[in-house]
## 1
Amino acid sequence: QVQLVESGGGLVQPGGSLRVSCVASGFTCSHYHMSWVREAPGKGLEWVSTINGRDDRRHYYHTVEGRFTISRDNAKNTLYLQMDSLKPEDTALYYCARVRIDGSYYRTNEYDGWGQGTQVTVSS
C-alpha cells in the first residue's frame, strides 16, 4: 500500500527558508518519478518539482527554479523540498506525490499516490 507522509511546513517570513519532507512506505521511491505539487487557496493543483527515479534528473516550475531544490534520501526512502527566498505567492498546501509509471510528471492527473499535504505560509 502506497503511503506518503509530509512534514515540515509552517509559517515563515518573506525571504526565509523552509524544508519539507515526505516519508514514503509501501514502495521504493527511487524506482519512481517523485514530485512536489502545491495548491494555493482558491486555485487548482500546481506542479512544483520532480526528481526522476532512473537518473535523478530534476525538473522545476519556472517560478521556483533557482529558489527550490528537490532531493531524495534513498536510505530513508524520503523526499525533500528545500525552499529558499520564499515569497508570499509560495503560500500553499504542499503535497508529495508519486508519478504513475506510464505518466507524465507535469500532468497532475497522472499521479497514483498522494500524501495529506503540509501547509506552508509565507507572511510577515
Note: The two ends are 40 Å apart (CA to CA).
## 2
Amino acid sequence: HVQLVESGGGSVQAGGSLRLSCAVSGLTISWKCMGWFRQAPGKAREGVAGIGTNGVATTTDSVKGRFTISRDNAKKTLFLEVNSLKADDTAMYYCAAKVVEGSCSTVTAIDLWGRGTQVTVS
C-alpha cells in the first residue's frame, strides 16, 4: 500500500521559511520522479518543483531561487525548503509521484498524491 504523507506546513509571516516533508511508504523513491504541487483557493493545481530519477531538480519560475526540492532516498522522504515566502505562496501543498517512467512536471502525469499540507503566508 503506497502512501505519501506531507507535513511541515503552517502559518508564517511574509519573508519567513518552512520545510515541507513528504514521507513515502510502499515505494522506492530513488526510482521515481517526484514533485511538489500547490493549489490556492479558486485556482488550478500547479507544479512547483520536481526531482527526477537522475536527481536533477527543477523549479517553476515563480519560486526559482526561493524554493528547493531534495530527497533522502534512504529515509524515503521528499523535502521542499520554502524561503522568502510571499502572500501569493499561500496554498495547499501536495507531494506527488509518478509510478511509471517519465516526467512528473504536470498534474496529468502524476499517479500518486498525498493529502496536502497547508501553507499560509500573511
Note: The chain has no helices and eleven strands.
## 3
Amino acid sequence: QVQVVESGGGLVQPGGSLRLSCAVSALTFRDYVMNWYRQAPGKERELAATISAGGTTSYTDSVKGRFTIARDNAKKTVTLQMNSLKPDDTAVYYCNARNRWSAREYWGQGTQVTVSS
C-alpha cells in the first residue's frame, strides 16, 4: 500500500507564501505522476498542478506564474511553492500519486491553506 502524507498548510496573509510538501512511500516513486489538487468550500476539487515522472510541469491558469511544483526522486517527495497568495487560493490541498503504468491512484489526507487578513 502506498502512503501519501502532506504537510505545510496554514494561515497566511494575502500576498504571502507557503510551501506544501508531500512524502510518498512508493518503492518506485519515479513511476508516479504527482499532482496537487485543491478543494475550496462549496466547490468541486480541481487539479492545480502536475509534474510528470520526467519532470514536465503543468498548472491550472489561476495559479500560473505564482505556484511551482517540483519533485525529488531520491527523497520521494513533491513540493508546491505558493507565492503571491490570494483569498481565492483558500482550500484544502491534496497530494495525489498516480502510477503512470496502472493508473492506480493514492491520495493524501489533505492540508488546509487559508489566505486571509
Note: The two ends are 40 Å apart (CA to CA).
## 4
Amino acid sequence: QVQLQESGGGSVQSGGSLRLSCAFSGYTYGSYCMGWFRQAPGKEREGVATIYSVGSASYADSVKGRFTVSRDNAKNALYLQMNSLKPEDTAMYYCAARGTWPCPLRPGSWNYWGQGTQVTVSS
C-alpha cells in the first residue's frame, strides 16, 4: 500500500519562500513518477511539477523559474522549493505518485495521493 504524507505548508507574505516535503512509503520509490499538484477553493486541481529522475522535471508555466522539484530516493522523499511566492499560489498542495512513465501534469491519471498541506500567501 503506497502512502504519501506532505508537510511544510504554512502562511507567508508575497515574495516569501516555503519548502514542501513528501514522505513516500509502500513500494520501490525510485521507480515511480512523483508530482506536486494544487487546488485552490472553487478551482480544479492542477499540476505544479513532476519528476521521474534527476533532470527529468516538468513544471507548470505559472511556476517556472520560481519553484524547484527534487527527490531523494535514499530517503523516499519528494520536495518542492517555492520561491517568490504570489497570492495566486495560495492552495492546498498535494503530493502524488504514479507507477508508470511518463509523468504528466494532468492530475487525472495519478494513482496515489497524500492528504495535502495548505499554503497561504498574503499580499
Note: The first strand starts at residue 3 and ends at 7.
